[in-house]
Amino acid sequence: MEILSTFINGFSLGGIYAMIALGYTMVYGIAKMLNFAHGDIIMVGGYVIYVFMLFSNPILAIAMAVLFCILLGVLIEKIAYKPLRGASPLAVLITAIGVSYLLQSLAQIVFGSANKMVVVYDFGAVKFLGANVQISSLLTLGVAVVVMAALTLFVKYTRLGRAMIAVSEDRGAAQLMGINVNRIITVTFAIGSALAALAGLFYLFKAPSISSTLGAMPGIKAFTAAVIGGIGSIPGAMLGGLLLGIVESVSYKITVIAPYTDAIEFSILILILLVRPTGFLGKKRREKV
Fold this sequence. Notes:
The chain is mainly alpha-helical and about 290 residues long. The chain has one domain. The protein is about 70% helix and about 5% strand. The chain has a two-stranded antiparallel ribbon. α1 (about 1-30) packs parallel to α5 (about 135-155). The longest helix is centred in the first third of the chain and has 30 residues, at about 1-30. The chain starts with a helix and ends in a 14-residue tail after the last helix.
């Protein structure tokens, strides 16, 4: 029964990575940039929950975290990334890293370097097929699946979603067809930031402690998940996140390899890229010259 518990925890952790990876993959697919500050939005959402939990209920704290992260994501896009639309990928990458360190430094100035305890809500555990399973783990996995399904339907069957696909395929042609590219990119950042806030919430369920570097490693692992699944693919982000979560959960249970869990995860990334450079569900793109 411990095996079942390990796999459920792995799927739950994978759901968190998947929600973060969805933000990476949507921004890359549409804006063609890697927003390495995305992981720090998780940290910001966690601190917003911490502040509002001091004088309000969890529901309001979660709602404010999502709203604040959406506004922050849009603001970062407008101030830091929009002026660099025609710049080289290296310039955008350096800017994203700079924004990441800026957010971490501001959080450290405001809240200090010591970890803050954030107990959002204790759902307890239930017996599932003879194993003790945390309800928060099942909730995390369920929300991740619903989010992926909703995003897939949104992109395929709404006017705004089809506009996103058009911008992703050919930004110039989409603009000629009357699509407001700037608006589409802004909406993409807003959606990705909202998902990062939710990921921060579920991460606090697993480890109710927050610091200025909370989003650093989850952000890197979620990016790894996005690449494994095929960056630019929504189902790929979910697949990569779940795979990485299972590998991490199982590795931590095996004493001999537990200290090398991170190395194992990144080694899997390298192996998969050697065999399939576009990831499991990624598509090869022809570059126009």
